[in-house]
Amino acid sequence: MRKPGKRGNPRMNLLIIRPEDLSPERRFTVTGERAEHIRTVLRAKIGDPVKTGFLNGKTGVSTLLELEKGRAVLEAGEFTAEPPKPLPLSLIVSLPRPQSFKKVLHFAVSSGVKQIIFTHSAKVEKSYWNSTVLAPESICTEVIEGLEQGFDTVMPEIRFYRYLKEFFADAETLFPSDSLKIIAHPGRSAETLPSGAPHTVLAIGPEGGYVNSEVEAFAAAGFIPAAFGSHILRVEFAAAFIAGFLMHR
Hints:
This protein has 249 residues and is of the alpha/beta class. The chain has two domains: 15-76, CATH 2.40.240.20; 87-247, 3-Layer(aba) Sandwich (Alpha/beta knot), CATH 3.40.1280.10. It has six helices and eleven strands. It has a six-stranded parallel sheet, with helices on both faces. Strands 1-3-4-5-2 form a five-stranded mixed sheet. Helix 2 (98-111) links the parallel strand 6 (87-94) and strand 7 (113-119). Helix 2 (98-111) packs parallel to helix 3 (136-150) and helix 2 runs parallel beside helix 6 (235-247). The relative contact order is 0.15. Mean pLDDT is 93; it is low at 1-8.
């Protein structure tokens, strides 16, 4: 399904496979770090159940048939349980440094965010767009690991805008019309934001913040500037902190 990464996923709460991975006998093979997770973290024995889900599909249980270092063979049962409901949040983030990008993506996917947008902005280093973490295979690996941690199967929509003006050209059609749209920027207190919106769109700038012209462009697109405290956080921590605040107030 995917090549093993350089690191395992110590939080693999769900083993994700594709229907085409199954043999006619509904058997499939897992190799690399994921097999080692079954062996050394789950400490599964032959005959034990392993929670499994089809990518973009339902979840269930597979039975462990064979296990050795770096390789496991399982038999899929009937997958009938629905994946968790998505978080009613769209996340827009100015492209951060490569390691922060991976953390933001992993957080968003494992939390159930199904629309993730990365954009350029004035204070984003142009070299970030050439990073290998943006390669499709690298993104796929991070997304699968996020889904496996979050006990989810549904791939998110991920978009990239190398020019912010192209994002604004699409912005009107990207989100539900009744969304509450917020930009994390000094303005009104977050405590005074309207409540009850069925969907929220959150824009987070680079660690240096958005420049004034960018804030004005977001405001023109219907985004409300809101302050979420006086501390300056790394982008990945800001995303988690603000998303948690908005989803649980």
